[in-house]
Amino acid sequence: MPSKLVEEINPRTYNPNVYFTSLNGTKGRQGVSKNIKSTTISSRNSKRVNYSLADMEAKLYTSNADEVTEDSTNHRDKKNSSNQSLPDKFSPADIIQSRKRFMELDTENKNDQYEVPGLLSTIFNINRDKIDSSGSNTRGKNKFDVPKNLKLSYKSTKPPATQKKPSHRLTALKRILSSKRTLQSYVEALDNVNRHIIFSNVYNKKYFKVLPFITICSICGGTDDLSGCINCGEKICSVSCFKLHNDTRCTM
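Structure tokens predicted for HIT-type domain-containing protein:
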């Protein structure tokens, strides 16, 4: 055990109940006693503070009232100075134009804006010619002329339009049947030889026995779900064929 933590026993002040004492303990006790003495001295020297709630509230309200009065006076002074300096900052034409613009924005109906110059002249005792001249100047300044070569430049930079090719079967068929030629017109265009061959084969009984009579659609040649047109009586198999028949073939 180190010698600093051990204290020799003095025979004169010997106490049989004490065998070991620590220097740290004695130092700690002395520091504690010094701190206690210093706190007591500081508490004696400190002054008492009066925490009167009524006095504090009165001071608070009086200070706020003084600040409000100072702010109001400063605001009035600034407003008066700004009103006095308004003609100095802006010209009479600018003031007239700003008032006119404010009245135009204040009107609920856009068609009533032509009455704004008359109202402005009657309210502020301003000549009507001054109001019209100020408005014409601003309109001339704000006018924007579109260059003539803008359209040409757009056409040169415009991407080419994609042309859709008609690939549907009905569109091609509609283009073919746009002539609206019926079977009678084809028969009338035949010569006598071909007409004799066709009609002799049709009216031949043996030919009918070999090829029985079949009803087909007048548009696409289909044989399923046939129905007749109300106007001309031709056979039609579907809605698309019916539309195409009404556009190209129906004679009624």
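The chain is about 60% helix and 0% strand.
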